[in-house]
Design a protein that fits this description.
alpha/beta; 15 strands; binds zinc ion
Length: 332
């Protein structure tokens, strides 16, 4: 069954789903509007500003929720800096004159990736050549990343750091902010202890496993940090996780076990595929059906493969070396 979400209530009181269409095979991002007891609204994640439909969907949601005045929107919270979550933040800020909050780490990452991207496509191109992509493919990936960056404009002018240590109040609840690195270095979730509702962003998803990639300027061990984070979240008493994509998660532990098993399997598979020596691209070709992927997915497949190979190199299972400007991995 394809996922065909519509604007409407979630199973969590006072939290409305606002799905924004995406120009990717991953067709939707789930954003949320949470109504507070004083009648103010908090928006969580924003969508990608790739076409008129994104803002039209938000305006439809405001109409349906009877949000009539800019001042009714108290704040915009972002779980992370990826374009499908960050991309409409600036436009929503222009409409509502409100402040946008994100973790300090992802504010910096957003600045590098979206706001000051001078020379960025050259950095991306070199990165993917280093992964073993040929120059035309690396150039295409870099150009696509630049188009994606344009879909995050206009950028928010008031972008503030979330105070991770303090609980935050919205949607009639007090929420604890939980740092959950992996999918992005500064990814956060919001957890309501009182009723077990979690705004999970893309940390744990149904149907797909969140992309864990190694990117230029990013953390050197994203997969290690991600797996450690999943482990530490097993006992979180989650009743309902409202996620950044696809249906909500009710079996929190069960879904974490599945994702852990997926990565364990991927790690041993990729270790095998490194054979007597391979580039990131060589290994990715064997694990992903590269011919069926679009350029956006290919970028993620390479970054994901690199994250796994680096994990294996760090664990001592593989050795990494540079050959002709490319990263090579071979058994230790
Ligand atoms: Zn996402």
């Amino acid at each position: 069954m394809p996922y065909e979400p519509v604007i409407g209530p979630t199973s969590a009181t006072d939290i409305t789903l606002v799905p924004i269409a995406l120009p990717y095979r991953l067709r939707w991002v789930n954003c949320y509007a949470a109504r507070h007891t004083d009648g103010s609204w908090t928006l969580i994640d924003t969508g990608l500003n790739h076409s008129e439909t994104s803002i039209q969907t938000w305006l439809q949601a405001f109409h349906a929720l009877e949000i009539r005045h800019a001042r009714d929107i108290r704040q915009v919270l972002l779980t992370h800096m990826h374009p499908d979550h960050f991309g409409m933040a600036g436009l929503l800020q222009q409409l509502s004159h409100t402040t946008v909050f994100i973790s300090a780490r992802d504010r910096e990452a957003a600045r590098i990736a979206w706001m000051e991207r001078e020379g960025r496509s050259e950095v991306m191109k070199r990165w993917f050549v280093g992964c073993g992509a040929d120059t035309p493919l690396a150039t295409e990936i870099a150009a696509y990343a630049d188009i994606t960056a344009q879909a995050t404009e206009p950028h928010p002018t008031r972008l503030r750091d979330l105070d991770i240590a303090a609980p935050i109040t919205f949607g009639g609840r007090s929420w604890r902010i939980i740092e959950t690195p992996g999918h992005s270095d500064g990814h956060v979730m919001f957890f309501s202890e009182a009723d077990g509702v979690l705004l999970a962003g893309d940390h744990v998803l149904n149907r797909i496993t969140p992309n864990i990639g190694l990117w230029p300027d990013g953390d050197a061990s994203p997969l290690r940090r991600y797996l450690a984070s999943l482990d530490s979240l097993l006992d979180l008493p989650v009743r309902l996780a409202l996620t950044g994509h696809f249906e909500p998660i009710e079996d929190w532990r069960g879904r974490i076990y599945e994702i852990q098993a997926h990565h364990a399997h991927r790690l041993s598979w990729m270790a095998d595929e490194a054979g007597s020596g391979a580039t990131v691209y060589d290994v990715a070709r064997k694990v992903f059906d590269m011919e069926s992927l679009d350029i956006h997915q290919m970028r993620f497949a390479l970054a994901e493969t690199l994250a796994h190979l680096e994990f294996l190199a760090e664990s001592g299972e593989l050795v990494q070396e540079q050959r002709y400007g490319q990263r090579w991995f071979r058994p230790a």
